[in-house]
Amino acid sequence: MAHSAALLFGLTGVFGALIRADATVITFGRAAFALAALALFALARQRPLLRGLDRYKLCMLVVSGLLLAAHWVSFFVAVKVGGVAMATLGFASFPAFIALLDMLVFRERIGSAEAILLTLVTLGLVLVTPSFDAGEAGTAGLLWGVLSGLMFALLAVANRRAARGMDALGLAFWQNLVVALAVAPFAAASLGAPTRLDWFYLGLLGVFCTGLAHYLFVKSLERLHARSAGMIIALEPVYAIACAWWLFAQQPSARMLAGAALIVSAIVLSARARAPNAVRDA
């Protein structure tokens, strides 16, 4: 189940490249279809979505939902600007940001494992950067991907508070609702642009790469140790790069592969160091 979830998460960037719409429309469509899938699943399983909600958790859900919206929009901008591989590798820097946020927000000391993690991610990003000109498409896409990783790291921190007393299904539902409401005003003017095929891809993105992928990942935690599942999910960039190579002929260079290996190693190190603290929404 964890490998299936990793593959579906990896396909997120592929669908972002296939859909001929801007990042806000893709984000809105993804959230809307995910909402429908999660609501039907909750109804079928008779899972109350209001359980555990109070004013504080509602505020935290709004904050985390806005961070999720920023994460998705910046990721899809990265895909449009720099391609699937650059977007995914930039996003994969999130464990380094989580380590930094733990130090800055929770006053945790950085140990040797975190120091190695930060070093690996930094070296990996340097290797995959096509040039140090922000105007170059690949570099711009990588920077947007890194911003997406930062937003996801902030989301992870917010989820530590929002998730207390709530199951993963309810958390995912309310966050997707906030995403849909937040981006709707920006996507409204362009909602007529997607073709029927684009809406089909959006449906697949929302139902399978969001709703089903999240469910499979959570279910995998019932049989696997959280660290083991986290290390399997670390294969997401590998699946994304392989799919982009196959579908779009986006062949990675040796330097990019070396940087990707360092970044994936950093994610594996992070997964071994601690259990995942955030609901996976990439």
TrEMBL record:
EamA domain: residues covered: 4-128, 140-270
Keywords: Membrane, Transmembrane, Transmembrane helix
Keyword Lipid metabolism recorded: no
Chain segments annotated as transmembrane: 26-44, 56-78, 84-106, 113-132, 138-157, 169-193, 199-217, 229-248, 254-271
Top-rank taxon: Bacteria
InterPro entries membership: EamA_dom, EmrE-like
Keyword Heme found: no
Protein name: DMT family transporter
Naturally occurring in which organism (per UniProt): Massilia rubra
